[in-house]
Structure formats: C-alpha cells, structure tokens
Amino acid sequence: MRTVGVEEELLLVDPETGEPRALSAAVLARATHDGADEGVFEKELYGQMLEFATHPQADMADLGAEIVRCRREAARHAGEIGCTVAALATSPLPVSPSVGKGSRYQWMAEQYGLPAQEQLVCGCHVHVCVDSDEEGVAVLDRIRPWLSVLAALSSNSPFWQGKDTAYASYRSRVWPRWPSAGPTEVFGSAERYHRLVADMVASGVILDEGMIYFDARLSQTYPTVEIRVADVCLHASTAVLVALLARGLVETAARDWRAGRAPADHSVSLLRLAAWRAARSGLTEELLHPVTMRRLPAETVVGALLEHVGDALADTGDLDHARTGCARLLDGGTGAQVQRDLLERTGSLREVVTGCARHTQE
C-alpha cells in the first residue's frame, strides 16, 4: 500500500479581530522551545503563514489523526503568543503580507515584484510514494485531467482583500502568477521531465528546482509524486479525502502505465480551462469532465472520479470513505460555501475568520 503525507499551510490570525498576523517566527520558536517534532512545523514565504508536514502514513485514519494533532499543536503554539491558526486558503480580511527574511525570500520579492508582495495563499500538498522516477513521471502524465476535480473538492478561498471574488477557489487563480505554476504537457519519460526542469532552472527565471510549481511534480526531497492543486481544506476530514483520492489516482495511473495504456492527450490549454471551471464554481455548478472536457454537473464529474479510482480505493479499503466524503461535500458544501454561509449569517468577515479558526481545530 502506498504511503501518503500531507503538507498544510495555515493562516496565523488574531483570535479577536481575525486579521492576519506576521508571527510565524515567534510561533516556530515557541514550537521548538516546547519540543515539537523536528521538521513538523516550518516557515513559509510570508510571516502570516505556518506550515506543517505529516509523517508518511499508509492508513487514512492514522493520517487524519496526525493532521488533527498537528492543527491543534499549531493552535496551541500560536495561542501562547497571542494568535491562532485558521485553515483558510486566502485571507477574507484585507492584508499586506510580510515577506520573510532570508536570501531566498528576498530574491523572490525582488525578482517577482508585486505578485510576491500580494500572494498570501495557503495550499494543501499531498505526497504519494512511487517506486521510481520513471513510474512517477508516468503517473504525472496520467493524472493531469483529474486534478481539477481535487481542486473543486478542496475549494476554500472565496474572499480576497475584503471582497467576495465570485470564485470558490480564488487561491488557484492567484497562484498561477508564479512563472512555473500550472498544468504541464505529457512528459513521456523521466529523462524528458528532468531535462525540462534543468532547462527551467538554467533560464534564471526561477532560482532552483524547489521553485518548480507544477500542479503535480516529482518531489525534490522524497520518493513521491507531490500533488499541489488543493486549497488548504477547512476541515481535516476534507484533507484526508483529498489525500485518499490522490493515492487512488496515483495507483490507478501506475496500473495503467504498467498495462501499457497511454495517457490522455489533452492540451495544457484545455487543462487550464478545467482548472478555471473548478475554481469558479467548486461543487455548486458544473465541471469539465476529465475524459471528454465537456461541462457536466459537478456530482456527475465527482462520480466519474470515484469510478476511475474505484478499484484502487477498494483494494486499500477506502472506497466507502471516499463515497461518503464526496457525498458530504456535495450535500453540505465545501469550505468556500461554509465561509459564505458564515458571512450571510453574521454579516462580518471577522466572524468568518474566527468561525473558521474554530472549524480548523475540530
């Protein structure tokens, strides 16, 4: 059974006002002082963000328990210095992000200008182990059209700088301003993948391989495929759902590769349209079907994803979990809908943030 790890980026906010606070360095210092697991909590580009990474897990219940524990530990460390954490992919309230110190972050600020000064967004990255780079690239080639469905399921960023954007995932519309971000063409081999990455680094537009921001990539650090399309999910249960679906996609793609089945040849242009459609409506309207690239109800497209990965999920015992989780989101709404419902009930973006901070730790 393939192991899975999750990285989550959380927003640091004032527990009373809901405003983002640039206190990541202080929170990390507190976590170190309290003896937190080494490498669990990490700094990010902006001082208003805190990242954690789980250990690789084969069992989804264990993964869920670790995500919950890490969120609560993050909240505890943040609370000791007067702030809290919220699993929000963008800040509903206006914010001026604070770029972290260090030569790497300063290079990014100077190189990319205004986007680097504005781009405070929080994602969820899922690592699924693979046996080799060759298998990993074969997986990347075959999961491309399905990633937009994961993005729709995770959508959790309807607000930006105090305004409703009309999108379910505005984070995914902001993120592509980085020059290496977005969907990729079919690579065909590990050699072609690594040659492209080397050429991109050699161009000087990006600093190093860590700035390859493809929707899915080979991890620079671990023997994994890293899927990067998801918003940070409001609820830990949604993060687990995204992780188990990601594992199902990786296993299904690897089986197709071993069986000699070719990847779909959808163009990057069509994949961008699918990503836009998922970002715009989440699960409330239509999505592009990953096979036909035609609009169909979100429920139908999510059903197609479950059918596509059904055998792999059944083999790991995750199929019922996946069906239940998808049905819950289709019926009750994603994080984006929860945020809009909070605003409708309270009339206050501050209440949206503080309410979501409570959801984060449940």
TrEMBL record:
Enzyme class, UniProt record, top EC level: ligase
Keywords linked to the UniProt accession: ATP-binding, Ligase, Nucleotide-binding
Top-level taxon of origin: Bacteria
Catalytic activity: L-cysteine + L-glutamate + ATP = gamma-L-glutamyl-L-cysteine + ADP + phosphate + H(+)
Pfam assignment, any one: GCS2
An example molecular function term from Gene Ontology annotations: ligase activity
NCBIfam families membership: gshA_cyan_rel, PRK13517.1-1
HAMAP family cross-referenced by the UniProt entry: Glu_cys_ligase_2 (MF_01609)
Functional description taken from the UniProt entry: ATP-dependent carboxylate-amine ligase which exhibits weak glutamate--cysteine ligase activity.
Family: Belongs to the glutamate--cysteine ligase type 2 family. YbdK subfamily.
Name of this chain's protein: Putative glutamate--cysteine ligase 2
